[in-house]
Design goal:
heterodimer; A: 244 residues; alpha+beta; 13-stranded antiparallel sheet; globular; B: 405 residues; 6-stranded mixed β-barrel; 16 helices; 12 strands; 18% strand
């Protein structure tokens, strides 16, 4: 479940970043700022299917996601049957978990989110939440029409990676994030593909995260909507507990 | 016991050297087993607690009473309370003490993460109290802010090398707090459970992480000769109800009761072994008396009082027991001396003992009050065992005894 939670949260963050805007002369932070600027404060709704391959075993999860701005998010599991109805609610620093078997939502320490975001998440979170220039030094090169960014954590950065290499398309859609350890070894690769154009943006519908040890998760987005009105009641504990 | 009785008994013993050697050997064996059991048990218990106290725990700890109930940093000692504890210790003449701040959280590398105790120590004062921060197996100790010491085992688990960055994440009262650290060195405490459960950072860094300016405990080292329970009681009285002062054994009731049980178990063991030696001695002395009926008859006939004869027989048994104890004790001492160099019991044993963080190497003790106790038990046994044969010798009628074939 931990891996799925990580994946779910990563999707939540990643999907929102891939926003198109006009290309001009940018430095690395501008490129990343553009990649995230248009989604902030927006709403998102969609369905995600994740196939998690861990230790040679494969499991399929499906969940529905709602999010609004930086602070509000709801993930509801639809499959497998054993997990259906369970979900997570994030409201600011508060995180709640609900499972039908428990019968009521239980608060999780907020460290749980930070922790779950640590895997593939924290770097993505950095990419999307604007703390990047505090944490990293960046260099940028052009590779054809793509931007190729190399992010190196500053000495006190809360980052366990040695560096990140991010490939961003000319329209500011992130194509690839490579995570390197502090010895220069490749740890993890996140690939974003099958972009679809929505009004005012393009988003990837396939995200593949591959670990060095062979584990991987394949995440597919369906019926994605941006900027839809979401009832504030969605992001409540009562709604989390109201799962059928 | 006068010296002529002693001389007679000594001569009596060596008139039948083979029998005497047998008797001495039996006592020697029982003494050896008693002494080995005591030496190993006593030594193990002592080296276990000594390792705990000197490496990790200190002789006693001062905490806030609130922290004992709910061990969260914000329930710990405030800076004023840390100062008050320092003043009370100074008044009691205790010099070696250091504040610590422990907080629980996650330690993360690029490869893995583990739940762990993050212990903030004062790099200058802590080595006066415990040795953990100085038991460096690779790299260096805590020198500057942002340094972190972890065990070789955790470093292996998280695949961290010296000089690499790790991130610590804790749940403080105000929310999650993170800090990046550099793995400055690896320590090896010799206690696997401790190695797996703890990283060391500077007190100031721990205070930033926990968002608490004080400490969770003040750890005190006392000279070995000082009674920690008594010192703790004195400090409790001086500091009042807001504080909790516990000696190592008071804080580890499970270990204390284990030590007590192990020592209690030694008494019936000693009794059984004493009984065994006693039966052997009684048997041999009885046979010796039966064999020497004629000799004793002559002694009584030439004027020796039955009471004196009884004493001589008892002294013979006493001498044999003392010789046996000397032989068994000497062999036991040599063996304990070898075992006191340390017995490596391996990590399996140490991990079996759970949170108590036992060392993998334990030492037998070669000294202790158990030497006197075993000597007393062996001599008493020898004396009691000879009582019946001696009475029998004293009750002989000279004429009948001399006729005895």
């Amino acid at each position: 479940m931990d891996r799925v939670r990580k994946a779910a949260l990563a999707v939540l963050l990643a999907t929102l970043a891939c926003v198109a805007c006009a290309a001009e002369d940018y430095d690395a932070f501008d490129v990343l700022a553009h990649a995230r600027s248009n989604w902030q404060g927006e709403t998102f709704h969609g369905f995600v299917t994740i196939e998690v391959v861990q230790g040679g075993e494969s499991r399929l999860y499906r969940f529905e996601v709602w999010s609004q701005g930086d602070d509000l998010g709801l993930v509801r599991f639809l499959a497998p049957e054993a997990d259906a109805g369970s979900g997570y609610l994030m409201a600011g620093d508060e995180v709640w978990y609900y499972a039908p078997a428990i019968g009521k939502a239980v608060p999780l320490p907020s460290i749980a989110v930070a922790d779950s975001l640590f895997g593939s998440g924290p770097a993505l979170e950095d990419l999307l939440h604007g703390t990047l220039s505090d944490q990293y030094d960046a260099t940028m090169a052009r590779d054809g029409t793509d931007y190729l960014l190399t992010l190196t954590p500053k000495p006190d950065a809360l980052v366990v990676y040695g560096s990140l290499v991010v490939r961003v398309r000319e329209d500011f859609a992130i194509l690839l994030v490579e995570y390197y350890d502090q010895r220069g070894g490749l740890l993890r690769t996140a690939t974003f593909s099958e972009y679809v154009a929505l009004p005012g943006r393009v988003i990837p519908t396939l995200i593949v995260i591959e670990e060095k040890n062979g584990d991987r998760s394949v995440e597919r987005l369906e019926n994605v909507e941006f900027g839809v009105a979401i009832d504030p009641a969605v992001f409540t504990v009562a709604n989390l507990e109201a799962a059928q | 016991m006068n010296s002529s009785n002693l001389r007679m008994a000594w001569r009596g013993l060596w008139r039948h050297p083979r029998r005497t050697v047998l008797m001495v050997s039996m006592v020697a064996f029982a003494s050896l087993v008693i002494i080995l059991l005591w030496g190993v048990t006593d030594g193990f218990m002592t080296s276990m607690t000594d390792a705990q106290i000197s490496v990790d725990q200190g002789s006693l700890k001062i905490r806030s009473a609130l922290y004992e109930e709910d061990p969260a940093p914000e329930n710990g000692l405030s800076p004023d309370q840390v100062a008050a504890a320092g003043a009370a210790l100074a008044a009691a003449g205790v010099e070696r003490h250091a504040p610590r701040l422990s907080v629980y959280g996650m330690l993360k590398s690029a490869y893995d993460a583990t739940g762990i105790e993050i212990r903030g120590i004062d790099p200058l004062r802590e080595p006066q109290v415990t040795t953990l921060a100085t038991r460096i197996a690779a790299g260096r100790g805590l020198e500057k802010p942002g340094d972190l010491l972890l065990s070789e085992e955790i470093a292996k688990q998280l695949d961290v090398r010296i000089g690499e960055r790790v991130v610590v994440l804790v749940q403080a009262e105000s929310g999650p707090q993170s800090l990046a650290f550099t793995a400055a060195g690896f320590f090896a405490s010799g206690m696997p459970t401790l190695d797996k459960g703890i990283v060391l950072v500077s007190l100031d860094d721990a205070r930033r992480l926990a968002a608490w300016p004080g400490a969770t405990e003040v750890v005190v080292a006392l000279p070995r000769t000082e009674n920690a329970e008594k010192a703790a009681a004195g400090l409790r009285e001086a500091l009042g109800d807001m504080f909790s002062v516990k000696s190592y054994l008071e804080a580890n009731a499970m270990l204390a009761s284990m030590i007590k049980t192990a020592k209690m178990e030694m008494w019936p063991m000693m009794f059984i072994l004493g009984l065994l030696a006693g039966f052997g001695v009684a048997n041999t002395v009885l046979f010796s008396v039966l064999e020497r009926t004629r000799e004793f008859g002559v002694m009584i006939a030439v004027g020796m009082s039955p009471r004196r004869l009884q004493r001589v027989v008892q002294v013979e048994s006493l001498i044999a027991s003392a010789l046996g104890f000397a032989a068994g004790g000497l062999l036991g001492y040599v063996l304990l001396l070898l075992l006191s160099r340390g017995i490596t019991l391996g990590t399996l044993w140490a991990s079996m003992t759970g949170d108590l963080a036992f060392p993998t190497k334990l030492y037998a003790s070669t000294h202790g009050w158990y030497w006197i106790a075993s000597l007393v038990v062996i001599l008493l046994t020898g004396l009691i065992a000879a009582w019946y044969p001696a009475r029998r010798a004293a009750a002989l009628q000279p004429v009948e005894a001399i006729r005895d074939q």
